[in-house]
C-alpha cells in the first residue's frame, strides 16, 4: 500500500511538472493538438519584424510566425484554406483570460503579406514579466489591441 501511494505521488508530481513546463497549447480544429514547451518553440524558425508599440516607438521583435505553429498542429492553411474552412478562426488566450481573435487568412502568407508573430524578444532582450514569455505582434495594425501578452493558448474554431 505504501509503495502504491509513493507511485501515485510520483505520477502526480510528473504530471504537474509537465503542465508547468507547457507554455503554449494549440487546440480545437487541429489535426494534432500541441502542448509546446519553451524548448519546442525555440526550435521553430524565427523571424524579425519591426512595429510600433503603444509607446509609439518602433521596436524590433523576434519570434515565430504564428503560421508555422499552426502548420505544425495541422491547421487547414494554404491551398486547403477555402470554402467552409474560410470561416475558421484562431482564438488567442492570455494568462489573465484576455482573448483576441484572428481569421485564419490573416495568419496565412498565401492570403496576407504581413507576418504575425509569437514574439519572445523585443529589441534583442527577452520579454519582461507581465508581457512574456510570449506575445503576439501584429505589424502595421493601427492599434495594438490584439498584441496579446502572456500568450498561453491558441484555439482553432469554426465561426458557424
Automatic annotation (TrEMBL):
Cross-referenced SUPFAM superfamilies: Oxidoreductase molybdopterin-binding domain
Signal peptide: 1-20
Sorted UniProt keywords: Signal
Matching Pfam families: Oxidored_molyb
Ranges of residues in domain Oxidoreductase molybdopterin-binding: 23-156
DNA repair listed as a keyword: no
Matches recorded under Gene3D superfamilies: Oxidoreductase, molybdopterin-binding domain
Protein name per UniProt: Oxidoreductase molybdopterin-binding domain-containing protein
Amino acid at each position: 500500500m505504501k509503495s502504491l501511494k509513493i507511485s501515485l505521488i510520483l505520477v502526480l508530481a510528473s504530471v504537474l511538472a509537465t503542465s508547468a513546463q507547457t507554455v503554449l497549447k494549440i487546440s480545437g480544429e487541429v489535426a494534432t493538438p500541441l502542448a509546446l514547451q519553451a524548448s519546442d518553440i525555440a526550435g521553430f524558425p524565427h523571424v524579425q519584424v519591426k512595429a510600433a508599440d503603444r509607446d509609439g516607438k518602433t521596436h524590433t521583435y523576434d519570434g515565430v510566425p504564428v503560421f508555422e505553429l499552426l502548420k505544425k498542429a495541422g491547421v487547414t492553411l494554404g491551398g486547403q484554406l477555402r470554402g467552409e474552412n474560410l470561416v475558421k478562426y484562431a482564438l488567442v488566450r492570455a494568462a489573465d483570460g484576455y482573448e483576441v481573435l484572428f481569421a485564419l487568412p490573416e495568419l496565412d502568407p498565401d492570403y496576407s503579406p504581413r507576418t504575425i508573430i509569437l514574439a519572445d524578444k523585443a529589441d534583442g532582450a527577452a520579454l519582461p514579466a507581465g508581457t512574456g514569455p510570449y506575445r503576439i505582434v501584429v505589424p502595421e495594425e493601427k492599434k495594438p489591441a490584439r498584441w496579446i501578452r502572456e500568450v498561453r493558448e491558441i484555439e482553432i474554431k469554426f465561426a458557424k
